[in-house]
Amino acid sequence: MTRCGAKMSAQDSCLSLIKYLLFVFNLFFFVLGSLIFCFGIWILIDKTSFVSFVGLSFIPLQIWSKALAISGILTMGLALLGCVGALKELRCLLGLYFGVLLLLFATQITLGILISTQRMRLERRVKDIVMETIQNYHSRPEESAAEESWDYVQFQLRCCGWNSPRDWFGIPSLSSNASDVHRVPCSCYNSSATNDSAIFEKLSFPQFSRLGPQARPRHSTDLCGVPADSNIYSEGCAQNLQKWLHNNLISIVGICLGVGLLELSFMTLSIFLCRNMDQVYDRLARYR
């Protein structure tokens, strides 16, 4: 009787440890989700400051802020399930918590398999989207989110066009009847190669405000272009994107593996606690 009681006491202590570990970890992620949600709301409220600091224009920044807010809400909701289910020892909430984590894990595995097996199709799809954005550059000023996002990509990756700067040649919005010189967007301009103040004066979009002190934000429908024979980036963004992925491959894989192992750990703890909780209590009640 004493030996059985000691065994049950050890099992009860083990389950209590697992319960509070699950609670503490989920409490941390609840706080993290709250911070992500508040950050997304902050961006929505104070867009002007983030436009000048981050370099994105209003529409892409608004999309990212909403994505952050939704991610924060989902993280908070999932962490709340784990916290309450572990602390109150509710099997229904622990089972729901396990099911949501399993669904997320399966979705990530599926996406990883699709990306690895459909890589060539994905690359072609991305190329088609980029080339369509280039061909329609500033042809519809009211629908400029994709164009402004691509300008930001060119500016950050220090590249021009998808394959090369020649992708921009012949674009109607950048062509000039008075001159045969090809023009490219100002996001292709290599500001580190020269200190030409005349060029800096043209770089006046919010996303290029870091290029020089004379830059001033104007309305997003304004068109900024520079001659293709000036100091522009010579490489296409496809090559630079491949270089970036190659240089950061270990970090990306490490983050994905870390997230997957974390999800597996939480699933294991929750299902173990859910399956053994009632059994221990029934045995304890039997020996009392």
Automatic annotation (TrEMBL):
InterPro entries with a match to the protein in the record: Tetraspanin/Peripherin, Tetraspanin_animals, Tetraspanin_CS, Tetraspanin_EC2_sf
GO cellular component: plasma membrane
Database matches in Pfam families: Tetraspanin
Transmembrane segments: 20-43, 63-87, 94-115, 249-274
Entry's localization field: Cell membrane; Membrane
Principal localisation: membrane
Name of this chain's protein: Tetraspanin
